[in-house]
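Model: Ready when you are.
Researcher: Fold this.
Model:
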Amino acid sequence: MSGKNNTVNTVLGPVPAEDLGVVSVHEALLSVVPGAEYAFDITIDRAEIFETIAAKLKDFRAHGGGTIVDSTGMFHGRDVRLYETLSRATGVHIVASTGQGPEKMLGGYFLTPQTNPPTPWPAEKFAGLFTQEITEGMVVPRVERRGAAGLVATAATPEGMTATDESLLRGAARTALSTGVAVSLRYGSDAVHDLDVVLDEKLPADRVVVGGLDRKDAVATGASLEIARRGAYVALDHVGTEDETHITDAERAALVADLVRAGFGNRILLSSSATGVAKGHLGNDLPYSYVLTTFVPLLEAQGLSDEDVRRILVENPRDLLSVR
């Protein structure tokens, strides 16, 4: 579906989907482990954080980037006012997200309802929480609501989906159905199973992106091809990370080429899961421009055309992020 006439929710308000340019769909601007801001050895210097992230966004723009999606969700340092200022200062569109997960990253508030034994929040409650962030604006804690979230980001537990994870995923799907934004899902232990939970809520597959598909376990099971066949988007979102969990960039480029040759060039999304500033954990210090500067040449070496690359970097994310 074309992005014409569609809009995308950015932190500065809706913009025409056609204006996004090259999009990086899974990054983090400010990533704070919940509670880290209270630790004695961690300082949150807003001016310093602004300067650091602004420099990375300007570098992204200088290499042809247009839009960054901050897909960290609600409680990991998301700072809507900071993102508004960064977007104005750098000219890069910023799409922020609502949502949360996996279970272990939730605040106790969501895990200890007054029942005996404790039961997870029902999907409907999560849907209500996330939907408000899109229809009424994202919460600035204890202060106000600001611009609308442009995506619902959630994740399942790596060891396997828990009951609370399932509530989160179903709540995210219901939010997407009622508001028209898409769902970004980081799978737990079984990517196809987790996608099916979301699709079970009758959400069209082309409103879902499954992230983490450049993990070795996903590649070994051929998950990318199966997910693309179902009509969802395949995110290889750790470009530049080569470790015991993830495949190498050379293998990523080959996987992209395989998907394109199989007819699924319209289902691929790329990003690096880079972190602008991390507090309380080790961030991923890759530049946001890494896909453009370092990975695109690998795709070209695999025989992808300019049109293929444009589809992956511009058209696919534009269609995903367009509010429907």
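Researcher: Now this one.
Model:
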Amino acid sequence: MRKKLAQILVVDDQEEILFSAKMILKKHFETIFTTNSPKKIISILSENEINVVLLDMNYRIGFEDGREGIHWLKEVKTLSPQTIVILMTAFGKIETAVEGIKIGAFDYVLKPWNNEKLLEVIDKAVAESRKNSKKASAEKEEKNEKRYFVGTSAKIKQAYSIAEKVARTDANVLILGENGTGKYVFAEYIHQHSERKNQPFVHVDLGSLSDNLFESELFGYAKGAFTDAKIDTPGRFENASNGTIFLDEIGNIPLHLQAKLLHVLQTKTVTRLGESKPRPLNVRVIAATNSDIKTEVKNKTFREDLLYRINTMEINLPSLRERKDDIVPMANFILEQIAEKYNHGHEASGWHFEDNVALYLEKYPWKGNVREMENKIERALILAENNTISVMDLDILDFEEIQENDENPLSEMEKGAIEKALFKHNGNISKTAEELGLSRAALYRRIEKYDLKN
């Protein structure tokens, strides 16, 4: 008879009970732990994945009300919620065992027990434990699953639609877009929706790698390959084995190094510095750049054959200027994410923007795109009071590059904000400018524009 993969802990102060239980259970289950002291439950649970605890309710002579059993039942459920507890009790103490079931015990058995009945109850408890473990794993995975903001603009919806289709393949992807448009997040999205999602996702910022570090970082090196090579070290490609490598800012690679990268992609092998034997690679490649890569090919600063190798599928990410309708919803999404981060993963605790913020968000130029928005919202959350973020907290009052007219409601809002701040600081220009996040010169221009000199 094949034993079931389960770990059972029997807790009783009588050695004959422990011996008897172990003799019966070890024929049917893989691992049996026993202890005559309930105080050892904590260490056993912390060191082992116990499926079922068979727990006696009384441990001291003269104290047979079952309160100790109830106490340790609560301890087990707190320490290891997925562990199933079965209570052991004498015939006359069933009432306390029933109380235990109400607060979380799975069942109870009477001492002396019937062997078949004991095995039947533990069988059911093991099945319940496995069900609990699967549920806990699913909940953990759901909790840890990263949320992505898609939006409603046609361009971004098209980009995500392509991403979902290409994620199901192993095709190489080239992501194009301005700085701050979320190329890293988009690459991660493709990885998370692929068959490789449980394997490594390795990000390499090629723009920050110097020429002399390029090969050792990407391809690895053997011990003694150069002065500081103390041990054999795999490169980023090997670290991404069976997963995805994200080559960010690929347009920054010098021509002489592009040839070496191309060889790796063509042969699907990598050779560490100081070695001659190539190592096979199973890696999905996603690359990204904010440069006009096709112009670079025309100008002979980027290899055409390397471009063909990395852009089996090309995806363009729009700037925030091209997705105006997404700006306010995105800001709310980012605020919620950052609030949860600062609240250690709990709910966002009611953080919100003041009512007039939406118009300013939509009109602000957002040259740094999503990254700039994230930075401004995080800074605002740190500075804001009462869980409410204002335009001044966001530091988006300076509209030098926005063509406004008298009919724009933003002008009236800005005028009102300046009047309020001037009054608050008794006309002090330095303090007013500091509160509004403006330079003194910019504040003077607005005072003249809105005729606030008096």
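Researcher: Key takeaway?
Model: The radius of gyration is 32 Å.
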